[in-house]
Amino acid sequence: MLFAQVEFEPQYFESEETYFMVPKFSNELKRKEGTVVELRGYYIPFDLPSNSLIISRGPYASCFFCGGAGPESVAEVIFKTKIPKLKLDQRIKVRGKLRLNKSDVNHMSFQLVDAEFVE
Questions:
Q1: Which residue from 48, 80, 86, 111 has the least number of CB within 10 angstroms?
Q2: What's the pLDDT tens digit per position in 106-117?
Q3: Among candidates 116, 98, 119, 97, which has minimal Cα distance to 51?
């Protein structure tokens, strides 16, 4: 998996007064930034705007937020429009432009923007 080509290192964020693990993206990932990519995974419910969701490589019971996987296993997906209702662990496939996030601790390291569902 392409997202596995990332390392994380601790960085202190004065605004939050704590350390966060920040990504160190591989050159291959940096070259992919801004290109359209497709992801297939599980919908993870999260309190996000109505046009955003979290997609995980694994189901809820073993996802990053439950301690069973690393941050490279999830992505934030920001759609062009409001998303339909989805069920926990529903398998989905999405397509969007890859954005790499290294500095905003309130968002995932991997983001797909201008995304859409793929049948």
A1: 80
A2: 899 999 999 999
A3: 116
